[in-house]
Design a protein that fits this description.
The protein is an alpha+beta fold. The protein has 19 helices and eleven strands. The longest helix has 32 residues. It is globular, with a radius of gyration of 26 Å. Bound molecules: protoporphyrin IX containing FE. Protoporphyrin IX containing FE (HEM) binds next to helix 14 and helix 19. Pfam families: p450 (PF00067). Belongs to the cytochrome P450 family. Its cofactor is heme.
Length: 512
């Protein structure tokens, strides 16, 4: 092949000297002569990043994409749908190879292969993108490389921060924040427009809930506001990096750097203040993540810098996921009045109208739980499981060899919309989960919106407890109906770091 390429390079030289051709023509013929080389580098299954044939001996099928860019230009804000369609059209639902710039990626749209990837030890790392490094996530749970430090953080998270005891001890915070949210709903309904903009209320409530869980109360409006802006900015920046390994724009990097300095300033100061107050004293009666980290035994203690990274990640991960999921659920409630009524009847039967729903009522609200599951199925907040995995060594996935250093993704959205797995997958029908109890915590890969395996979401119980309680209380107190303008709820989606409703939900809330 090399000899052939050299031979083709000789052609323009020969043409110029022999026929005395003009420069533009020379340029054109030179381009032509490079064609074979170009074809060799690019026209292979999976495209440019898979150009070395040793990397793909089993020929994992996949789109060729664009030269140098791979399929980056075609993904956009519906990447999960485009990838699902590509895999299906190429008969590559088990495993498909593609290129994101020069990054080699495989993706599965099949639950069995998803289990192999998520639960196998070969994929226990994450590809650390520059955005994650710049935003300090490399020292936090989500992006710390699988090793001693990550295992240490995971242990603290599972045994302490998100233990069932701690999740239930935070119910007071959840209830208080929900009171504030319902107050805001009533205020907006009493306003001139008589409509509720739910996105703002849920985002604010979710942020407040995370802040209180992480730092306890009394942070002050100004700091809370600042941290809220920082989370927003972080989401925007990660979004801009999301699919890019080649567009590492200088401007975005500078913004990341500035944001990190701000986070270190604000969160670092809170840590320092708490230390001075004796925050590590176990008897100080505080019940937040920061106090917990400060009161760990000396051998488990984290440095202040690492503590800032871990706490910042909790705020970052815990805010949007919960708000986005609840906005999708409420959109479905407004759209499907019959389903809403059925859930309200269940609440009336098991709780009544004279006291507020509590965590302890949730196990009795089976239909409400089914609604949450159905929304997680139809609109998974992380359709591609948000953050991918990285192969730490060569590994066989099914019949294919996946080389070390390959990024692996699971298209959970494709799995939850696969008609061979789910009957009428496009129909919103919570009843399906009354007929068959499918767990959502990661043991059944047909529906694993929190991921699975060693890197499964550690905040899943806290996230689910929050969403279920708030949904129950919002449905107990109000009937949610469309605005009077006659505009239907718009279910168009937009994939940023999470899968969001493209148009923020506005509706009316009528006291029941
Ligand atoms: C509806 C709520 C949530 C959803 C749908 C969700 C989803 C996910 C998913 C899909 C992953 C990747 C799992 C994998 O690779 O297998 C993840 C990881 C993670 N989530 Fe969540 N999450 C939610 C709430 C939360 C909350 C409330 C927190 C913390 C306050 C949190 C903290 C994390 C962290 C730290 C990781 C990284 C784990 C690791 O790499 O070891 N999440 N989440």
């Amino acid at each position: 092949m090399k000899m052939r390429a050299n031979f083709f390079l000789l052609i323009p030289c020969f043409l110029v000297s022999f026929y005395n051709l003009s420069l533009p023509l020379l340029f054109f013929t030179s381009l032509l002569s490079l064609l074979p080389l170009f074809v060799k580098l690019w026209l292979v299954p999976g495209g440019f990043a898979w150009r070395n044939p040793e990397l793909n001996p089993g020929k994992i099928p996949g789109p060729v994409g664009w030269p140098f860019l791979g399929i980056l230009p075609v993904l956009g804000s519906h990447a999960h749908r485009k990838l699902a369609a590509l895999a299906s059209s190429m008969g590559a639902t088990r495993l498909m190879a593609f290129s994101l710039g020069s990054t080699r990626v495989v993706i599965t749209s099949h639950p069995e292969t998803a289990k192999e990837i998520l639960c196998g030890s070969a994929f226990s790392d994450r590809p650390v993108k520059e955005s994650a490094r710049l935003l300090m996530f490399e020292r936090a749970i989500g992006f710390a490389p699988s090793g001693k430090y990550w295992r240490h953080l995971r242990r603290i998270a599972m045994n302490q921060m998100f233990s069932p005891k701690r999740v239930s001890s935070l119910e007071g915070v959840r209830q208080r924040v929900c009171d504030e949210m319902t107050e805001k709903v009533s205020k907006e309904m009493a306003g001139e427009k008589r409509i509720v903009g739910l996105r703002g209320i849920l985002q604010r409530g979710s942020l407040r809930n995370v802040m209180e869980s992480v730092f306890g109360g009394g942070l002050g409006f100004e700091r809370e506001e600042k941290l809220g802006f920082m989370v927003k900015e972080g989401y925007e920046l990660i979004g801009e990096f999301q699919w890019g390994t080649i567009f590492q724009l200088g401007g975005v990097k500078r913004r990341c750097h500035r944001l990190t300095l701000k986070v270190k300033g604000v969160v670092g100061q809170i840590v320092e203040e708490r230390r001075r107050e004796g925050g590590g004293n176990i008897d100080n009666a505080r019940n937040d993540f920061l106090s917990l980290l400060l009161s760990l035994p000396t051998e488990d203690q984290l440095s202040d810098a690492d503590m800032v990274a871990v706490l910042w990640e909790m705020i970052f991960r815990g805010t949007d996921t919960v708000a986005i999921l609840l906005e999708w659920i409420m959109a479905r409630m407004v759209l499907h009045q019959d389903i809403q009524t059925k859930a309200q009847e269940e609440i009336d039967e098991h709780v009544g109208k004279h006291r507020q729903v509590q965590d302890s009522d949730i196990p009795n609200l089976i239909y409400l739980q089914a609604i949450v599951k159905e929304v997680l199925r139809v609109h998974p907040p992380g359709p591609l499981l948000s953050w991918a995995r990285l192969a730490t060594h060569d590994v066989h996935v099914g019949k294919f060899l996946v080389p070390a250093g390959t990024t692996a993704m699971v298209n959970m959205w494709a799995i939850t919309h696969d008609p061979t797995i789910w009957k009428n997958p496009w129909k919103f029908r919570p009843e399906r989960f009354m007929e068959e109890d499918v767990p959502v915590m990661g043991s059944d890969l047909r529906l694993a919106p929190f991921g699975s395996g060693r890197r499964v979401c550690p905040g899943k119980s806290l996230g689910l407890a929050t969403v279920q309680l708030w949904l129950a209380r919002l449905l107990q107190q109000y009937k949610w109906v469309p605005t009077t303008s006659g505009k239907q709820v718009d279910l168009s989606e937009c994939l940023k770091l999470s899968l969001e409703l493209k148009t923020p939900l506005t509706c009316r809330a009528i006291v029941r």
